[in-house]
Amino acid sequence: MHPFLMRSYLWWCILLGYLYVSTLSFSSGQYLGRAIQSGNWLHDLGSELKDDFKSTTLNFVETSILPSQLNDSVSCGDLEGVGSLNTTCLLNSNLYLNYDLYIYGTGNLEILPKISIVCPVEGCKITFNMSGNINMGQYAAIVAGSVVVSAANLTMDLNSSINTTSLGGLPPSPTSGTPVGYDGAGGGHGGRGASCHKNNKTSFWGGDVYAWSTLSEPWSYGSKGGGTSAEYQYGGNGGGRIKLLVKDMLYLNGSVTAEGGDGGLKGGGGSGGSINVHAVKLKGYGFISAAGGRGWGGGGGGRVSLDCYSIQEDIKVTVHGGFSIGCPENAGAAGTNFNAYLRSLRVSNDNVTTETETPLLDFPTRPIWSNVFVENNAKVLVPLLWTRVQVRGQISLYCGGSIIFGLSEYPVSEFELVAEELLMSDSVIKVFGAFRVAIKMLLMWNSKILIDGGGNTIVTTSVLEVRNLVVLTENSVISSNANLGLYGQGLLQLTGQGDAIKGQRLSLSLFYNVTVGTGSLLQAPLDDDASRNVVTESLCKRQTCPIDLINPPDDCHVNYTLSFSLQICRVEDIVVSGLIKGSIVHIQRARTIIVDTYGMIIASELGCSEGMGKGIYSHGAGSGAGHGGRGGSGFFNGRLINGGHKYGNADLPCELGSGAEGPNESYAPAIGGGMIVMGSIQWPLFSLDIYGSVKADGESVGKKTINGNSSLIGGLGGGSGGTILLFLQELTLEENSSVSVVGGSGGPPGGGGGGGGRVHFHWSEIDSGVEYVPVATISGSINSSGGAADNTGLFGEVGTVTGKKCPKGLYGTFCKECPIGTYKDMEGSDESLCTPCSLELLPRRANFIYVRGGVSQPFCPYECISDKYRMPNCYTPLEELMYTFGGPWPFVLLLSCILVLLALLLSTLRIKLVGSSPSYREHSIERHSRHHFPYLLSLSEVRGTRAEETQSHVHRMYFMGPNTFREPWHLPYSPPNAIIEIVYEDAFNRFIDEINSVAAYDWWEGSIHSILTVLAYPCAWSWKQWRRRNKIHRLQEYVKSEYDHSCLRSCRSRALYKGMKVGATPDLMVAYIDFFLGGDEKRLDIVSIIQKRFPMCIIFGGNGSYMSPYNLHNDAMMTNLLAQHVPATVWSRLVDGLNAQLRTVRQGSIRSALVPVIDWINSHGNPQLEFHGVKIELGWFQPTASGYYQLGILIVAGDYSLQNMQHSDLLDNSIDYPRKIAACSDKSRKQQQSWLYTNQSLSLKKITGGINGGLINHTTVKYLEFKRDFLFPASLLLHNTRPVGRQDTIQLLITIMLLADLSITLLTLLEFYWISLGAFLAVLLVLPLSLLSPFPAGLNALFSKEPRRSSLTRIYALWNATSLSNIVVAFISGICHYGFWFAQPSEKANTWFIRREGDNWWLLPTILVIFKSIQARFVDWHIANLEIGDYSLFCPDPDAFWAHEPSS
């Protein structure tokens, strides 16, 4: 056989053997990550091997292996290794090849550190096909044009490498990435090569891209860079190919590179090659690179595909373009990094600056990629006329990345982007044509989406449909110079400063919330006049209202037939903290809009350049444009040019503001205000809250107008204000906020101001009646004023601010309720329609009231000024009672009749039960002595007292003191001269101690009295009288039974207990002890001493108060003692007359009250008594340390006359006025004594045998001292008077007044209960019992019998006076209540008049005071009639007085 045929046969046998063994070794293996059998790998590998064996080009040989041995099996030994390829082969020698190498084995292969396998031939291929593991030690290297590694596991230690850099072969035919020409451009592959040549080229790059279809399994060489001349035709070589097929783990701590070659200064860099990695796990800290090569123009990046289930993040993959020496700012374009397992594409230029794009051609639709990442200054180009970019996950642009859709020369393309998320950070998307986006989330951070329609109207609308979230922050912008629609179902948020969405026409729709942050912008049209004219041109030429602004379509689409420039449609809530700006801003089918403090919605200076009310410029003068108000006239050089006229409908305005023209086309006109429409008739806003401003002002002209020859001409007029049309339900215009359609100011000189615009509030639903809710809260300003004029020009007229016609009861622009007290019974908004209600039907204590929804009928509702009054007449309960009987006067008349009838009935009943009072009674002495409280009488007061007692009576010793709880009765220690002979002085002093201790009160008695004094004074007085009666009973019992009379000298008196007896006056004010002889005294002159009892003093009972008037107590003992000088009838008549005079003496005015008594004694008493040898003098006796003294009379009888007294008996310094001396100075005391000496006053102590005191006459009465207690004011009401007679009439009047008092008291309580419960309780309980007690006390007094009737009547009078305190409390309560009420402004008061409640609250208390005063006077007369039955006692004629002396 021919040797050549023999070798061919052997080669085929070896090939079949390898295939067989490989099939056995890989048949059971499965790829875990993708479940792909290893048979696929073998199929690929077999085809590669077949191609490799066809290669016979060998350039040089530098190895110990012979070519003849290669044709045989390559063993571990052939590679100068140790071991076997079917077990473990250790390569420990460097291999330098110039031909392809194929290594196969079923075992493991280990390349020891610093061992290299190198085939530095372009396109040279080294293949490792091992069933086991392959390990590469540190600094181990495999270098070739193509490297294929197949193993179970591949481990590359630190600094180990698989390198195909600049060893690429020819790119696949027919494509080529090598640039044409001699520009030194870089080669292209995954990304375009850079070109530094820009001569008149709109697009420039070097070598183009290829192998897009094998993106997931790249296997193409990189391209060479271009040359700079015919001598240097090529630059750097392209990168090679690397395929790593690892069954399990690829542990990469080294490098895998297929980078383009360096072209230097005379050539472009080569493009990166291809790297394809298949593994279950990719771990380590190495890097994978298919970057472009450096050169005059940088080479484009290659392609990398990683098909791994798990990739450690520390693995670095780079495909960036090569650096351009000729143009450093324009490196080669980035290649592609494709994750085949996740189907994710990443284009990153590793922050290398470039202007060269990486084209992305058609995107697969099955299966769809998951993610696309463009980052680190990578630039991606989608160049087709129509492209659909669709991924399952996100499209992300980071760190200067950009995507360009379409070509700038042909901006008519349509591009569609579909993804879950579009995330942009410091990146740009440029679109030349129309752009349609369908994503769930759009997040932009310092990024831009710029859409260029090329000004071509055939370009369709760009639509960004973002279903969940759109957030722009940090100067992010979405801009289009054509129509732009942004749709979504979630949140659209422009976060802050610099964020903007702009378009020729802009529509935002279907979001639930749109937030325009502070410093953010929504704008349409753009800032140039051409854009504005495109939008406004059709509206400026017609007067009809665009129907789509009043009743817009439901679809919210953007098309050229619609009138708006900026539309926000079908958005739930809109928050504006930044700026919304547009010529025609239309917000419809929204729910709530909040314009924050720094937020603005403006259409100012974005209206018409001319318009229907344009301002005219003629003869050098410019007038203002008109709209809602006529434009101001311009004036210059004596010429007046009328302003633009008004136009539009104030009730439903929908016109743009007009502009004012200039002298010629070279002068820009003043632009009118635009139009802002919120809501629609069918879909009004729920609420509009304005804290910032909403403006559609006309443009002002601020600079002077200069002609072409530099001469000054008249200024332009101002543009007119635009339109703000609001369809809404509720409006809140907060403080410092504004709604403005102000006309622009005219320019100097003489330019007229623009007319004001129009504002209309079209309320959607105005509830009336009780369902009314205010539609507006206005604290800010609404301004439609005309623009200011310059100098001689005229101001523009004010525009209009109108509202929908209000229903009945409401008026004004904001449909407020008519003022209180007015009604409106027709539709309309004019304030004059609110008619004042009639005041004739309004009760006196009523005010018109607020009615929700206003009053729609002529009769205005009212309410009483207080809830205490009763509707419908606003009467108090008392007034209702009175008006039930016809009014106050009929009620008073009826009540008076009833009271008189009841009084007559009670009087009749009283007469039947008690009997009629006699008009005149004899023997008043006995009656008068018994009218006071009953008490235990001494034996001397019993009629028929034995004569021997009178004969044995020695002396009457009076107790000192007023018998009060503070100062009880007490006896002086020194025995009087009259009894000093019948008592033992020491024993008498002991008796004084004992009797004084008995006379003292316990502490609790005084405490109870103090409490009762505060709470109920009549009860306190009754308590004091009760304790006084008990005290006198105790004294009498003590002297009669308990005391042994040891102080008496008489044994008989001590044995019989008859030497001393205690007695008291009926009023219990004065007590005394009578001393009697026992009959067994040893001295013989006792009887003669007893017979000389005169002069003798008798102390008055009482204390000069109303309850205890002064009186001379005439008992049988005194009568019998005086009988030896004065007949009993004379004495009794004298006592009655003197008591009649004493009853009117009041302690508080004792000086003046005693003068009539002194005169009566001198005129009536002493002349009669002197006939019998007796004379009486008025005097004061027994002063105490407290200043209290007792009044009485001094009786001088027989031969002992006052004129026979010696000078030694005259008063020296022994006469003492305790109260006066205690209160006066020495000088006044001497003056008093000189008066006393002058009047020869007697020393009563010497005359009467030891009783201190002094006589009272016209001279000394002036010096009597007295005290007035806190009850003294009551003496003005209660005082003892003279009888007036007509007792039955007086009692009938008292009964009437008593019933009237009760009636008025009850009515007063009813009135104060109506005022307040507190006032009622205060009047009733301060003081307790006092207010209602007079009635039962009065009935008790009227129906009582003698002798208690007088005392009970006094108690009744005391209750009557005490009840005045309750009336004082009533006045205080009324003043406090109504005084404070008057001081407070009435919130419910009407504007025409003010009504106050309780004008007459004081009337009943005042009537009650009058009735009680009258009642007190009747009671005083009644008591006088009861106590003084003999009216002759007051006869001024002494003879007539004594003529009524009763016979014996």
Account of the protein in words:
The protein is an alpha/beta fold and 1448 residues long. Helix content is 24%, strand content 23%. The protein has 27 helices and 73 strands. The chain has a 12-stranded parallel β-barrel with strand order 32-34-37-40-43-50-55-51-44-41-38-35. Strands 3-6-9-12-15-17-19 form a 7-stranded parallel beta sheet, with no helix packed on it. Helix 11 runs antiparallel to helix 12 (1017-1042) and helix 16 runs antiparallel to helix 17 (1150-1170). The longest helix has 29 residues, at 1287-1315. The chain is elongated and about 185 Å long. The model is unreliable at 1-7, 17-72, 919-945, 1201-1243 and 1386-1395 (pLDDT under 50).
How would you briefly describe this protein structure?
Helices cover 24% and strands 23% of the residues. The chain has 1448 residues and is α/β, with parallel strands linked by helices.
